[in-house]
Design a protein that fits this description.
The chain has a domain of 85 residues. It has 356 residues and is of the alpha+beta class. Helix content is 29%, strand content 27%. The model has no long low-confidence stretch (mean pLDDT 93). It is globular and about 60 Å long. One of its GO terms (biological process) is DNA synthesis involved in DNA repair. GO terms for molecular function: ATP binding; ATP hydrolysis activity.
Length: 356
């Protein structure tokens, strides 16, 4: 189900230059500060660009996006190669912001096409070009790159988006920060009962006390809904504030990975955070299953999670103090080692690199 064939990054944060070929499942492993999260960060920048929030995202601090600052690197570029199309842009530092040196789409198939959409602008022109009938390539490319979504469920505080009362009709897609979790689960319960049941079954595997969700619009305001659930053997009232951090994160991950219509590319940064080792194993199974339907890219530093994947799925992020490099594992070269050690053990022993 590969949507994105290759990503090329130049001059972005700790990444001076990198070109990665991507498969269906891509697991980036590295130590703290290795720059693995900056790979996910490149996709966050893409999201801000496509949602016309580049200037707000840069917030008068362009140097934090550029490899060792603008004196060393005056511009950064990202290129995303799809099946027969690609989208890319180059951003240059100008005064206290970043502006487009160019933004372009390309097609390579029965014939080739490639030219800039625009240059010198402050916000993306791709959506505008897609709305025009002058050229069909942007029209095809825009929804493809818009469907590369970074998910982040680390916030489990009392103000966490996943814990809030939300609009019951906010269910068109699962939001990247789980801000519509109860509404989306209610929609699955009513319209996709098989997938909803699978989500509950997976939650019970890692949280045996969990019996089921209790999802319905509020009796006091039928336009609102909150996450409520039932505990086995108890008649007490439980909502999202009664869940542990790890359990709430797992509910979000299960909803994301087991939903009927996930995005084309799911991106996750350290999804194992706060999970029990057994829950991490179940997470690995869900990630593997999801990669049969959609493309998955995740960054991790969990040995337990890493042990569940094949060498060809693993990309090692390394940083020796100057820049981040990415190395995709070669199973043939590791054959002797893999007879006696797991992938996680080899990473711990620094056989794969990517360790302090």
């Amino acid at each position: 189900m590969k949507t994105l064939r290759k990503v090329k990054i130049e001059g972005f944060k700790s990444i001076e230059s990198a070109e990665l070929k991507l498969g269906d499942l891509n697991v980036v492993v590295g130590a703290n500060g290795s720059g693995k999260s900056n790979l996910i960060g490149a996709f966050r920048l893409l999201e801000r660009v496509l949602s016309h929030n580049l200037q707000l995202y840069v917030a008068s601090e362009p140097d934090r996006f550029l490899f060792h600052g603008r004196k060393r690197t005056p511009a950064l570029s990202l290129d995303f190669a799809l099946e027969q199309n690609s989208y890319g842009f180059k951003l240059k530092a100008e005064q206290d912001t970043l502006i487009f040196e160019y933004e372009r789409v390309e097609y390579s198939g029965y014939w080739s096409y490639g030219e800039p959409i625009a240059a010198g602008h402050k916000e993306s022109k791709l959506e505008e070009a897609a709305a025009s009938y002058k050229n069909k390539i942007p029209k095809f490319v825009f929804p493809k790159v818009r469907n590369l979504v970074v998910y982040h469920f680390h916030d489990t505080s009392d103000t966490s988006p996943a814990k809030q009362t939300v609009d019951v009709d906010d269910n068109r897609f699962f939001r990247p920060n789980a801000a519509n979790l109860p509404a989306y689960l209610y929609w699955l319960q009513e319209k996709h009962p098989v997938q909803f049941r699978h989500i509950e079954e997976h939650i019970r595997l890692v949280a045996p006390f969990f019996d089921s969700f209790v999802l319905a619009p509020s009796k006091l305001n039928e336009k609102k809904i909150k996450l409520e659930w039932r505990q086995k053997g108890s008649e007490a009232y439980f909502d999202a504030y009664s869940l542990s951090d790890g359990t709430l994160r797992f509910i979000c991950l299960a909803t994301l990975l087991l939903q009927p219509n996930p995005p084309a590319l799911i991106l996750l940064d350290e999804p194992e955070l706060g999970l029990h080792p057994f829950a991490i194993r179940i997470l690995a199974e869900m990630l593997e299953a999801a990669s049969k339907r959609v493309q998955v890219l995740l960054a991790t530093q969990s040995v337990t999670l890493l042990n569940n994947f094949a060498p060809q799925d693993v990309i090692v992020a390394d940083n020796h103090g100057l820049k981040t490099t990415f190395n995709q594992l070669d199973e043939e070269k590791l054959k002797g080692w893999l007879d006696e050690f797991s992938i996680g053990e080899l990473w711990e022993k620094n056989v794969l690199g990517g360790r302090p």
